[in-house]
Amino acid sequence: MTMKGGTGKTTTAVCLSHGLSLAGKRVLLVDCDPQRSAATSFGVKGERGLAELLTSGEVDILQVRDNLFFIDSGGRRLAEVELVLGSHENRERRLSEALKHLKGCDYVICDCSPSLNLININALVYCDEVIIPVSMDYLAERGATETAGIIEEIHAFNSRKPISFRLLPTFYDSRTRLAHRVLEDLRERFGDRLLTTVIRMNQAIKEAPGQQKTIFEHAPLSRGAFDYYHLTEEILGRDRPGESRVGESQGS
Ligand SMILES: Nc1ncnc2c1ncn2[C@@H]1O[C@H](COP(=O)(O)OP(=O)(O)OP(=O)(O)O)[C@@H](O)[C@H]1O
Ligand SMILES: [Mg+2]
After folding, report:
1. I want to staple 205 with a disulfide (CB 3.0 to 4.6 A). Which of 40, 113, 224, 229 is the partner?
2. Which domains does the chain have, with CATH numbers?
């Protein structure tokens, strides 16, 4: 699995969650990263987070916007929980078990960290679909291919259902030849697993978390807002009715 970080996973998790909630869907965003970047983007902190959910079964579900709910990761405690879980039975299904009785959400979105760890495997086992953000550079392209392979391996031991994945081009800068080439390569290799939406490089996207706003609030007329609006529409358009769980994987 790629260890490459910074490809737009948290940004996509936050913006897509907010986009879907603005479209009237009820959304739960779960921060699966001890770094707590999603929590920081919203400026919130849950006392009991994913770490507690996976151990004691107790958790604070915070409402961060209309229709948008959030579970903190628990920060460093989540990294500790991972060590404890390692020796448990059914260790890769703990998240699925914990959220089994969750009702009333149209989408559950998990923001993963950039590593192959047990928490991320739990998220992959739980989710119906994985979005792998791929920044337009060579290492990210390699990372995405590796991640796709790992998803297939996880599917092999988790025969409950197939895990489908789609790739989302991010940090696209049309002025560079590299961006064009990477996008072409991805299209050739992954065909229609590549989402139509392309997220362009955009300064407003970078600024938004510092204001504890999403791109739709910070700069609603920016390219970033346009691209994430487009992504929201694409996800809404293709999904079947009913609940769907989307994981932002460590793809790169
Ligand atoms: N399209 C974009 N244009 C410009 N900056 C962006 C864009 N997308 C994300 N960023 C910025 O790039 C940085 C990394 O993005 P983000 O945190 O979403 O990546 P990540 O994949 O979650 O990282 P990690 O692997 O560490 O979890 C952040 O500062 C974010 O604001
Ligand atoms: Mg992140």
Report:
1. 224
2. 9-248 (3.40.50.300)
